[in-house]
Amino acid sequence: MSNQAQPTYPRNTWYVAATAAEVTNKPLGRQICGERMVFYRALEGKMAAVEDFCPHRGAPLSLGRVCEGKLVCGYHGLEMGCDGKTVAMPGQRVRGFPAIKSYPVEE
User: How many CB atoms lie within 10 A of CB 88?
Assistant: First the structure.
């Protein structure tokens, strides 16, 4: 275990995360200020960013895909909305899944 202090970053400020051309029809995983997040194009091409963590089994959502404006986990198909709330999952109810962080995005 390292004794080095973890860096601190200014919060509640804007950071450049990607160019518009980098966020395509596939999820883009990035780490900003020590937080793993995933960027993708939701409905009508709107850019969205949420925590890169599936609340079902912890898989990185950046390894999934985008389908009809929803971010779909590649592990069990959990569908996430832009607000970080679970929308659907094949064969299961999703009411019990906690929301993940969503981040404001400006393009």
Answer: 14
